[in-house]
Amino acid sequence: MTTEISQLIEEGIARIARASDEPRRDAEILLAAALEKPRAYLLAHSEERILDCEATDRYEASVTRRAHGEPVAYILGEKEFWSLPLTVGPEVLIPRPETELVVELALARLPAGTPARMLDVATGSGAIALAIADERPQAQTVGTDISAAAVAVARRNAGRLGLDNAHFRQGSWFEPVAGERFALIAGNPPYIANDDSRVDPAVHRFEPHGALYAGATGLEALRTLVAQAPDHLDPGGWLIVEHGDTQGPAVRALFEQAGLTEIRTVRDLAGHDRCTEGRQPGPAAGA
User: Fold this and answer.
1) What whole-number distance in Å separates Cα of residue 62 and Cα of residue 20?
2) What is the mean pLDDT for each group of 10 consecutive residues in the chain (287 residues)?
3) At 40, which CATH number?
4) Are residues 108 and 56 part of one domain?
5) How far apart are CA 229 and CA 283, in angstroms?
6) Cα 155 vs. chain centroid, distance in angstroms?
7) Do 179 and 143 contact (CB within 8 A), yes or no?
Protein backbone atom coordinates (compact mmCIF):
# COMPACT_ATOMS: atom_id res chain seq x y z
CA MET A 1 0.00 0.00 0.00
CA THR A 2 1.32 3.44 -0.94
CA THR A 3 0.47 6.82 0.56
CA GLU A 4 0.82 10.34 -0.77
CA ILE A 5 3.23 12.74 0.93
CA SER A 6 0.40 15.16 1.70
CA GLN A 7 -1.61 12.42 3.38
CA LEU A 8 1.33 11.33 5.53
CA ILE A 9 1.84 14.91 6.65
CA GLU A 10 -1.81 15.39 7.55
CA GLU A 11 -1.87 12.13 9.47
CA GLY A 12 1.26 13.19 11.34
CA ILE A 13 -0.23 16.59 12.18
CA ALA A 14 -3.31 14.97 13.66
CA ARG A 15 -1.24 12.65 15.85
CA ILE A 16 1.20 15.21 17.23
CA ALA A 17 -1.11 18.21 17.51
CA ARG A 18 -1.40 17.92 21.31
CA ALA A 19 2.34 17.60 21.82
CA SER A 20 3.53 20.36 19.50
CA ASP A 21 3.00 24.09 19.06
CA GLU A 22 3.95 23.68 15.40
CA PRO A 23 2.57 20.27 14.34
CA ARG A 24 2.82 20.90 10.59
CA ARG A 25 6.42 22.00 10.83
CA ASP A 26 7.33 19.01 12.99
CA ALA A 27 5.53 16.53 10.74
CA GLU A 28 7.27 17.91 7.66
CA ILE A 29 10.70 17.82 9.32
CA LEU A 30 10.20 14.23 10.46
CA LEU A 31 8.95 13.06 7.07
CA ALA A 32 11.77 14.81 5.24
CA ALA A 33 14.27 13.11 7.53
CA ALA A 34 12.65 9.71 7.01
CA LEU A 35 12.78 10.20 3.23
CA GLU A 36 16.30 11.65 3.43
CA LYS A 37 15.12 14.64 1.43
CA PRO A 38 15.12 18.39 2.11
CA ARG A 39 11.91 19.77 3.57
CA ALA A 40 11.30 21.82 0.40
CA TYR A 41 11.02 18.54 -1.52
CA LEU A 42 7.77 17.78 0.28
CA LEU A 43 6.13 20.95 -0.94
CA ALA A 44 7.17 20.35 -4.53
CA HIS A 45 6.06 16.70 -4.49
CA SER A 46 3.04 16.78 -2.17
CA GLU A 47 1.02 14.45 -4.42
CA GLU A 48 3.83 11.94 -4.91
CA ARG A 49 3.15 8.47 -3.58
CA ILE A 50 5.74 6.93 -1.27
CA LEU A 51 6.79 3.43 -2.27
CA ASP A 52 9.55 3.04 0.34
CA CYS A 53 7.98 1.09 3.20
CA GLU A 54 11.07 1.45 5.37
CA ALA A 55 10.86 5.24 5.06
CA THR A 56 7.21 5.31 6.03
CA ASP A 57 7.95 3.01 8.97
CA ARG A 58 10.69 5.41 10.13
CA TYR A 59 8.27 8.29 9.83
CA GLU A 60 5.55 6.48 11.78
CA ALA A 61 8.02 5.65 14.55
CA SER A 62 9.19 9.28 14.71
CA VAL A 63 5.61 10.58 14.82
CA THR A 64 4.84 8.21 17.69
CA ARG A 65 7.81 9.53 19.65
CA ARG A 66 6.80 13.14 18.94
CA ALA A 67 3.22 12.41 19.96
CA HIS A 68 4.58 11.34 23.35
CA GLY A 69 6.27 14.72 23.70
CA GLU A 70 9.86 13.85 22.76
CA PRO A 71 11.61 16.85 21.16
CA VAL A 72 12.26 16.71 17.42
CA ALA A 73 15.96 17.32 18.00
CA TYR A 74 16.28 14.15 20.09
CA ILE A 75 14.29 12.13 17.55
CA LEU A 76 16.58 13.24 14.73
CA GLY A 77 19.69 13.23 16.91
CA GLU A 78 20.66 16.65 15.58
CA LYS A 79 20.08 20.36 16.12
CA GLU A 80 21.43 23.29 14.15
CA PHE A 81 23.17 26.02 16.15
CA TRP A 82 24.97 28.99 14.60
CA SER A 83 24.54 27.18 11.25
CA LEU A 84 26.45 24.17 12.61
CA PRO A 85 24.77 20.73 12.67
CA LEU A 86 25.28 19.45 16.20
CA THR A 87 24.69 15.93 17.43
CA VAL A 88 22.36 16.00 20.44
CA GLY A 89 20.75 13.44 22.69
CA PRO A 90 19.18 13.20 26.12
CA GLU A 91 22.66 13.58 27.66
CA VAL A 92 22.71 17.28 26.69
CA LEU A 93 20.42 20.28 26.62
CA ILE A 94 19.06 21.10 23.17
CA PRO A 95 20.79 24.33 22.03
CA ARG A 96 18.36 27.25 21.87
CA PRO A 97 18.36 30.12 19.37
CA GLU A 98 18.63 32.64 22.22
CA THR A 99 21.98 31.13 23.23
CA GLU A 100 23.37 32.40 19.92
CA LEU A 101 23.39 35.82 21.63
CA VAL A 102 26.23 34.53 23.83
CA VAL A 103 28.20 33.70 20.69
CA GLU A 104 27.43 37.08 19.14
CA LEU A 105 28.66 38.94 22.21
CA ALA A 106 31.73 36.73 22.53
CA LEU A 107 32.77 37.30 18.92
CA ALA A 108 32.52 41.05 19.48
CA ARG A 109 35.06 40.68 22.30
CA LEU A 110 37.41 38.32 20.41
CA PRO A 111 38.86 40.15 17.39
CA ALA A 112 39.37 38.00 14.30
CA GLY A 113 42.92 36.82 13.76
CA THR A 114 44.01 36.87 17.39
CA PRO A 115 45.20 33.62 19.03
CA ALA A 116 43.06 34.16 22.12
CA ARG A 117 41.99 31.41 24.50
CA MET A 118 38.30 31.09 25.34
CA LEU A 119 36.51 28.93 27.93
CA ASP A 120 32.93 27.63 27.72
CA VAL A 121 31.73 26.50 31.17
CA ALA A 122 28.87 23.97 31.34
CA THR A 123 29.42 23.33 27.65
CA GLY A 124 26.84 20.57 27.12
CA SER A 125 26.86 19.71 23.41
CA GLY A 126 29.74 22.15 22.95
CA ALA A 127 27.54 24.61 21.07
CA ILE A 128 29.11 27.87 22.25
CA ALA A 129 32.72 26.68 22.13
CA LEU A 130 32.27 25.11 18.70
CA ALA A 131 30.57 28.16 17.20
CA ILE A 132 33.42 30.39 18.39
CA ALA A 133 36.06 27.89 17.25
CA ASP A 134 34.46 27.90 13.81
CA GLU A 135 34.31 31.70 13.61
CA ARG A 136 37.77 32.27 15.14
CA PRO A 137 40.00 29.50 13.73
CA GLN A 138 43.15 31.04 15.25
CA ALA A 139 41.65 30.97 18.74
CA GLN A 140 41.72 28.01 21.07
CA THR A 141 38.47 27.11 22.80
CA VAL A 142 38.02 24.85 25.81
CA GLY A 143 34.70 23.52 27.08
CA THR A 144 34.13 21.99 30.51
CA ASP A 145 31.19 20.02 31.86
CA ILE A 146 30.60 17.94 34.95
CA SER A 147 28.84 15.32 32.81
CA ALA A 148 31.17 12.81 31.15
CA ALA A 149 28.36 11.93 28.74
CA ALA A 150 28.01 15.57 27.69
CA VAL A 151 31.75 15.90 27.16
CA ALA A 152 31.63 12.81 24.93
CA VAL A 153 28.91 14.44 22.82
CA ALA A 154 30.87 17.70 22.58
CA ARG A 155 34.03 15.86 21.50
CA ARG A 156 32.03 13.95 18.92
CA ASN A 157 30.70 17.23 17.55
CA ALA A 158 34.18 18.73 17.35
CA GLY A 159 35.43 15.71 15.41
CA ARG A 160 32.42 15.68 13.14
CA LEU A 161 32.91 19.38 12.32
CA GLY A 162 36.68 19.09 11.98
CA LEU A 163 37.31 21.80 14.57
CA ASP A 164 40.76 20.94 15.90
CA ASN A 165 40.92 24.18 17.90
CA ALA A 166 38.07 23.08 20.21
CA HIS A 167 38.85 20.87 23.20
CA PHE A 168 36.65 19.48 25.96
CA ARG A 169 37.39 18.39 29.52
CA GLN A 170 35.25 16.69 32.14
CA GLY A 171 34.90 18.15 35.60
CA SER A 172 33.01 20.57 37.83
CA TRP A 173 33.08 24.23 36.80
CA PHE A 174 36.72 25.42 36.65
CA GLU A 175 38.37 22.32 38.12
CA PRO A 176 39.53 21.02 34.70
CA VAL A 177 41.31 24.34 34.00
CA ALA A 178 42.95 24.91 37.38
CA GLY A 179 45.70 27.53 37.10
CA GLU A 180 44.71 28.55 33.58
CA ARG A 181 43.47 31.93 32.37
CA PHE A 182 41.46 32.98 29.34
CA ALA A 183 40.72 36.11 27.35
CA LEU A 184 37.02 35.27 27.52
CA ILE A 185 34.83 32.98 29.58
CA ALA A 186 31.28 32.21 28.47
CA GLY A 187 28.64 30.04 30.01
CA ASN A 188 25.06 28.90 29.76
CA PRO A 189 24.73 27.29 33.19
CA PRO A 190 21.54 25.94 34.75
CA TYR A 191 19.44 28.93 35.81
CA ILE A 192 15.89 27.65 36.38
CA ALA A 193 14.51 27.49 39.92
CA ASN A 194 13.43 24.02 40.98
CA ASP A 195 9.79 25.04 41.37
CA ASP A 196 9.50 27.26 38.27
CA SER A 197 6.03 26.56 36.88
CA ARG A 198 6.85 28.10 33.48
CA VAL A 199 8.97 25.17 32.35
CA ASP A 200 7.42 23.32 29.43
CA PRO A 201 6.37 19.83 30.60
CA ALA A 202 8.17 18.21 27.65
CA VAL A 203 11.38 20.05 28.53
CA HIS A 204 11.09 18.88 32.13
CA ARG A 205 10.38 15.32 31.05
CA PHE A 206 13.03 14.81 28.37
CA GLU A 207 15.94 17.21 28.86
CA PRO A 208 18.65 16.67 31.50
CA HIS A 209 17.63 18.24 34.80
CA GLY A 210 21.24 18.92 35.71
CA ALA A 211 21.50 21.29 32.75
CA LEU A 212 18.20 23.03 33.53
CA TYR A 213 17.63 23.40 37.26
CA ALA A 214 19.99 25.29 39.55
CA GLY A 215 18.28 25.08 42.94
CA ALA A 216 15.72 26.93 45.02
CA THR A 217 16.40 30.38 43.53
CA GLY A 218 17.75 29.55 40.09
CA LEU A 219 20.86 31.62 40.81
CA GLU A 220 22.95 28.93 42.51
CA ALA A 221 24.99 27.92 39.45
CA LEU A 222 25.36 31.49 38.23
CA ARG A 223 26.62 32.54 41.66
CA THR A 224 29.35 29.89 41.57
CA LEU A 225 30.35 30.59 37.98
CA VAL A 226 30.57 34.37 38.39
CA ALA A 227 32.42 34.20 41.71
CA GLN A 228 35.10 31.85 40.39
CA ALA A 229 35.51 33.32 36.90
CA PRO A 230 37.85 36.23 37.81
CA ASP A 231 40.50 33.76 38.97
CA HIS A 232 40.58 32.44 35.40
CA LEU A 233 40.31 35.66 33.39
CA ASP A 234 43.20 37.51 31.85
CA PRO A 235 43.47 41.19 32.79
CA GLY A 236 40.95 42.95 30.56
CA GLY A 237 39.21 39.65 29.83
CA TRP A 238 35.46 39.27 29.51
CA LEU A 239 32.84 37.11 31.21
CA ILE A 240 29.56 36.50 29.36
CA VAL A 241 26.72 34.41 30.79
CA GLU A 242 23.22 33.51 29.72
CA HIS A 243 20.51 33.71 32.36
CA GLY A 244 16.75 33.81 32.90
CA ASP A 245 14.61 36.67 31.67
CA THR A 246 13.98 38.01 35.19
CA GLN A 247 17.51 37.53 36.53
CA GLY A 248 19.28 40.51 34.97
CA PRO A 249 19.48 42.71 38.11
CA ALA A 250 20.59 39.81 40.33
CA VAL A 251 23.27 38.71 37.84
CA ARG A 252 24.59 42.27 37.49
CA ALA A 253 24.90 42.37 41.28
CA LEU A 254 26.91 39.12 41.17
CA PHE A 255 29.23 40.64 38.55
CA GLU A 256 29.75 43.71 40.76
CA GLN A 257 30.51 41.52 43.77
CA ALA A 258 33.11 39.67 41.68
CA GLY A 259 34.87 42.96 40.93
CA LEU A 260 34.03 43.07 37.23
CA THR A 261 33.52 46.36 35.39
CA GLU A 262 31.73 47.61 32.25
CA ILE A 263 28.78 45.43 33.23
CA ARG A 264 25.69 45.37 31.04
CA THR A 265 22.72 43.12 30.38
CA VAL A 266 21.68 42.47 26.79
CA ARG A 267 18.19 41.55 25.64
CA ASP A 268 17.30 38.80 23.18
CA LEU A 269 15.19 39.22 20.05
CA ALA A 270 12.03 38.81 22.13
CA GLY A 271 13.03 41.80 24.24
CA HIS A 272 13.87 39.78 27.36
CA ASP A 273 16.99 40.12 29.49
CA ARG A 274 19.11 37.18 28.35
CA CYS A 275 22.87 37.74 28.76
CA THR A 276 25.10 39.76 31.04
CA GLU A 277 28.73 40.61 30.35
CA GLY A 278 31.48 42.23 32.37
CA ARG A 279 35.21 42.90 32.15
CA GLN A 280 38.10 41.94 34.38
CA PRO A 281 39.97 45.08 35.47
CA GLY A 282 43.36 45.71 33.93
CA PRO A 283 44.75 46.21 30.43
CA ALA A 284 43.94 43.52 27.90
CA ALA A 285 46.83 41.49 26.51
CA GLY A 286 48.61 43.40 23.78
CA ALA A 287 47.07 46.71 24.86
Assistant:
1) 13
2) 80 94 95 91 79 85 95 96 96 95 97 93 97 96 97 97 98 96 97 91 91 94 97 97 96 98 95 96 71
3) 1.10.8.10
4) no
5) 17
6) 15
7) no
